[in-house]
Specification:
The protein is of the alpha+beta class. It contains seven helices and eight strands. The radius of gyration is 16 Å and the shape is globular.
Amino acid sequence: MFDTDAELAAVTRHVRRDPLTVTVLLRRDLRAAHDEVWDALTDREQLSRWFALVAGEFREGGRYQIGDTTSGEIWECRPREHFMLTFDGPESLLTVELAYAGDFTTLQLTHGVPISDAGSGAEALVVGPRWDTALVALSCYLGGEPLEEPVTSTHSQEVLDLTKASIDQWAQVVAESATATPEEISAGQDSALEQLTAHR
């Protein structure tokens, strides 16, 4: 069990839009040592416990596959600092950076989606909640209370409620960022609910 409000409040969220890309940025502090966080993010056995089954070559220049869906190439990997990879498309870039401070490790996740796919900042309503739920699963795992199933395959009501609350939070962030119209945000919320919750 986790506190949905507390977990969502632990994350700082931003949306940016430029002529080429819509980018979501999430940042949160994790109460775990730097090496523990890095290993949870990059060790395939640990990933299978909290995130998903991930196959491939975990090295710079290697390719990976998440389950039967997402795949990509690892562009950069500086151990215990950051990695960058393509995420289900050569122009969709995911970067994860770590910084250690005292009892916490700060994780920053940046995911840029081509504007040709995103259309507007409302794309954050689909992309952002997926990473919110992943960060909650990671936090629970590092805290010794992992979810019953990896977050990408779970059908729990708890994760469903978290996803719905996250979509609402991202709608506020997108509105404040002025990267989408009210109509685009409303349509984006409907699309996100359909994609992220309808089949759970």
